[in-house]
Each structure stands twice: as structure tokens, then as C-alpha cells.
Amino acid sequence: MSKKQPKKRPKGMYAVIDIGSSAIRIVIAHLKGVGNWKIVDSAVQPVALGKDVFTQGSISRETTVHCLKVLTMFIEMMDGLGVERNHVEVIATSALREASNRDTFIDRVQIVTGLNVKVVGGVEANHLTFLAVRHALKGGGLRFNQSNSVIMEVGGGSTEIMLLQRGKMVAAHTL
Questions:
Q1: 167: buried, middle or exposed (CB in 10 Å: 19+, 13-18, 0-12)?
Q2: CB 94 within 8 A of CB 157
Q3: How crowded is residue 23: how many other Cβ atoms within 10 Å of its Cβ?
Q4: 115-155, pLDDT tens digit by residue?
Q5: How many beta carbons lie within 10 A of that of residue 138, not counting itself?
């Protein structure tokens, strides 16, 4: 039985956009090969998605327009750095998961910006947080894979708690 080979991405510029409850974030990186990348630029812009969704249940027209302006600004950043549209991942978390008008919001984003938004569930958000923490601690002297740990991410719309045993996630919960 052969081991699953990691997905090879072509070299070049890539971007990840995170549409969160209180901000939209972008990170642009130059990928030099599998596991070899350098952050070129990043930005954060505050938005009121969580305020709308957690008080009214839906995203207001004003917040939608503001989010579209932020995303349009991020597109200009990406264009200036040569990021191709097929090298962009856009994810959204708890506020969009819970918004009654999330499909309308996602459609507007796609029509106005051409960006496809993927709403990640709590389990996938936990996994992405785990990967980010593991990467951040790499080479930091902490024996992440030899100890028991708790990772807690307090976000604008949810709190993610992960229990790890010897570097492997054994339990996770989203509040």
C-alpha cells in the first residue's frame, strides 16, 4: 500500500482570505515548493458580521456593502502582487455559518468579486487552527508531539477548544 502523496501546487503567489465575525483577513504568500513559502503581505479590516448575525440573525445590507469594499481592496492587493484567481482560497467561519442569509451573501461576493467563499464547519475550523499552531511551534523548542496540550482559540463568534495528547487531537469542541 503506498503512502498518499501531498498535493503538489505550482510555484507562485497564493492568497488566503478569512471572513470572520469581526474582521476580514488576507495573507499573501510566495510558494517556492511544497512546504517552502514566505509571507509577502497581509492585512486585516474590521467588519460587523458577528454583530449583525448574533443580534439580528442575518447580515445587513450595510455590512454586506462594507465587506464587498474590503474584498475589492484585497483583490487590488492580490492583483498588484500577481496572485492568480485560482490561487485564492476564501473561507468563512461562525458568523457566516449562522447567518440566515449566508447564501445570498456568498452569491453577492461571487458576483461582485469573482471570489468563491467556502464556509467551514466547526470541526474543519478546529483542524485548521491545529495546523496553524503546529506550524507556529515548529522549531520553537516545545516538544509539541511529546506532551499533552490544550489549544483554545477565542474568536469573535465562537471559541474553539482542542485537547491534544502527544501532539494528536483527541477531542475538540466549538462553543
A1: middle
A2: yes
A3: 18
A4: 999 998 777 776 777 777 776 677 655 666 777 878 777 77
A5: 9
